[in-house]
Amino acid sequence: MTPAEASSHRELGQRLAEAEATIAALLSGQIDAVFDAVSETPVLLSQAQQALRASEEQYRQIVEATSDGIIRLDLLDRIFFVNRRFAEMLGCDPVGIVGTSVFDLMSRQGKLVMEAALSAGTESLDVTFCHKDGTEISVNLAASALVDVEGHLIGNLGVVRDVTERKRLQAQLMVSDRMASMGTLAAGVAHEINNPLAAVIANLDYVSENLAPKIIGRDPSKAAPKMSRAWLLDEIKGPLDDAREAADRVRLIVRDLKIFSRSPSDDRRGPVDVKVVMESSLRMAWNEIRHRARVVKLYGQVPPVEANEARLGQVFLNLIVNATQSLPEGQAERNEIRVNTRLTAGQVIVEVSDTGAGIPPENLGRIFDAFFTTKVAGAGTGLGLAICQRIVTDIGGALTVESQVGKGSCFTVTLPIARAEEREAIPFVEVVRVGRRGRILVVDDEEMVLRAVKRSLARDHEVTVVAAAREALALCVSGQRFDLILCDLMMPDMTGMELHKELSRVASEQANSMIFLTGGAFTESGRHFLTDPPREHIEKPFDASNLRAIVGRYLR
Amino acid sequence: MLRLYVAGAAPNSLRAVTNARAICEGQSAPGFELEIVDVLKHPRRALADGVLVTPTLLRVSPLPTLKIVGSLSDKDQVLLMLVAK
User: Fold this and answer.
1) In what order do the strands lie in the sheet with B56-59?
2) For chain A, what is the mean pLDDT?
3) Do B52 and A35 touch (CB under 8 A)?
4) Domain of B14: which CATH number?
5) Which of A190-194, A246-250, A313-317, B18-22 has the lowest mean pLDDT?
6) ipTM of the complex
7) Structural domains of chain B, count
8) What is the pTM of this model?
9) For residues A106 and A130, is the Cβ–Cβ distance under 8 A?
10) Rounded CA gap, A81 and A94, in Å?
11) Cβ–Cβ gap B43/A35 under 8 Å
């Protein structure tokens, strides 16, 4: 060893001894102050301890004051700590739940979601916890791993946000968006209804004013002139057929309206024919489309999809209205909106494309964001596509877009096929067959409906009509018996449901012989009454042959 | 030449001042001059000397410089270190 090496060796040894002595002094509590490396000022240790306590207190206050629940889990998913807010959400004592497994606080669905998420390492998930009183609480859980200073996993931290209210608002937003679309289209729909309605009225007036006097004669006491069969066919059947055709168009439009205005809570899913829904949506938007574009329809053969008809209608209508609004007015022949359906890789693909302005690339990534809109203020809520995407992903589908500025956009909806057992349940057209002659009671507060039903059925059956449920009840109580009671569901004073309840009490066999007539816009309780258990009902408007077929089948 | 860095009137610092004075005034350590520096008033001096905690006793001379951290309660041990070459 050279003298220089020896000297540096000695110095190293000394520095090491100093360091060890410093550590020993630190450990034995002989230190008063240390220099803070950042501020380069000495910090008295007793003050440092106070500051630490203050900082801890500050964090504790933040944790306790936050409106979110906070839980800390150990490696076995047992609760290590919860803040007061989390305990409040579940209606239990914060100390009482420490040590229990987090899964014990969850609903069955929550457990499944949580287990799947834990194994997949998902960081944010929607789960349901169980409140102490048994109700379920929807929450969003944002999880993060907790590690010690050496980086070893020691548990998980969860921030729990109650989203029950958010879910309710979301549902409300969906409805208000649908209503906004409907509002935009209302003028067009009124127009669509008024045209055929004008035809109905004009044709019926023609028959009533011009033909009836000719057949009956101006003086009712005089015998009618002899009419040729051909003349009758031309002059009476022609206008009546036209009126009938026009009325059918009104019926279709009202059916479309019913699709879009269905109750917000009715989100039952089932097999849905995308073509039917697309046609309804196109009809709804027709007044907007016709001045701007030709519509090209390429419907491929596709099976029914698993969806909710109203929600899917909302999606299609939104895409069609967007496509329409991307096109200038007045050049319908030059522009095109194309809808097509096809089956690819076990999924139904629905495309809505236009030859409009297209979406600039910088906006393409944002069009599905809520409140993003390029429309002028007041023209759009910016919710349409965000809601569409949510609806579609909720049913396990996808909504994507391709667009080129100046060429147009194409929105693609991918939808899951309905399950096989449900597809078999699609109603089929019943073969008309007239049964035996029966005694029928018709109850409806609308006189016009009573007269029409009586006219349709009187040839084959003995028909009694009453305009109030109380009259019907009185008839049954007085001992009259009917083979069938056709009864309006919603009536003032006493509803069809109430009549059913009363009859069940006083004449149960009559209650069991009821078929209900519904206008479609019935209440939540009405819907529940008809579906649980399922009860036979006929939707208005019905045509005569259909009504006769249903009655005939019932009396067979 | 010794320099003792202290933090105001903190307990360990006061103890170190008492002990350091006793060592310097004792029979066995003649010739040591003691300077006491309060880091709360002169933090820059402590940093310049590479002192990061108080109390720290620094032997400025003779070289090599030497640091002893703590309240210097084991006076014999401190003295042994101070006189070492």
Assistant:
1) B34-38, B2-6, B56-59, B66-69
2) 81
3) yes
4) 3.40.30.10
5) A190-194
6) 0.85
7) 1
8) 0.47
9) yes
10) 8
11) yes
